[in-house]
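Researcher: I need the complex structure. Ligand is phenylalanine. Inputs:
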Amino acid sequence: MKQELEKIESAALGETASCDSIKALDELRVKYLGKKGELTAILKQMGKLSAEERPVIGQLANKIRQDIENAVSKKMADLKAKEQELRIASESIDITLPGKPQSFGKLHPLTIVANEIKEIFMGMGFSIADGPEVEYDYYNFEALNLPPDHPARDTQDTFYITDNILLRTQTSSVQVHVMENQKPPIRIISPGRVYRSDAVDATHSPLFHQIEGLVVDKGITMADLKGVLETLMKKLYGNDCKIRLRPHHFPFTEPSAEVDVMCFNCHGEGCRICKGEGYIELLGAGMVHPKVLEGCGIDSSVYSGFAFGMGLERIVMRRYNISDMRLLYENDLRFLEQF
Ligand code: PHE
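Model: Output:
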């Protein structure tokens, strides 16, 4: 039995010395010292020994257990220290290395200017209305005094989904939704995407953005319209900015006007950018047609209103001197990072 004990000791000490992982060392400890371990198994047989042998072997066994325990815990301390050293080495930071640059996203110029316009209108007491981009013919055309077969429909090349459903060609459709759901006084703007079946070039895109405005109340006149638009343009382009209204025709407004803004480049003198005009056309506007009011259940003998619609792209291009509309949609970072 003495020999067996000594064999266990030398095996245990040898394996402990060559052990190189905390997990394996733990397994070793269980293997030799655990309840079902080899040393315990031997000690269980002590009963078979004679009375003289028992204390001798008992003492030896205890000494061996102690030796193995010491060896294991010393080794454990070594391994833990080594592990910590490795971790510290791997986590150390070289503060002389260059930093990793953080690139921040930016707002798209269309969004920047749309936000700015929204701010300006909110400052004048307008709220923001939303409407569907996939629209019934009724809201895009018919309720706006453009019955089927009206020739003016031809001027807006439309993406039809069915005979009755289309991608809206103008944000004017939102006028109808708002007037159906809200009684005067109404003061809203509605920014959003619109669609026309146009080929892409420097000034056209099948998808673009408009911002519609609508005011309906008692005693609203064309002078209110002019005042609101003048305020907008002065805030957008500076205090010396002038606008002019030219008579025009829209089926849903009467009278109607196209609104031009003084050329930012030549300040009205006439140059290449405004094609010698001194002014640049920026939006359509007018007094809401009584038929449109009545169609939405608003008494046109009590209430009047004005509406306007402007192309956001044109305003943005004017603002940043962008000559080609396609740049706004190509998502080229070299372009977008400039704003
Ligand atoms: N919806 C018109 C267009 O797209 C613009 C407009 C809006 C004109 C509101 C008058 C009133 O051309």
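Model: Summary of the prediction. The pocket of phenylalanine is lined by residues 170, 172, 212, 250, 253, 284-286, 307-309 (CB under 6 Å).
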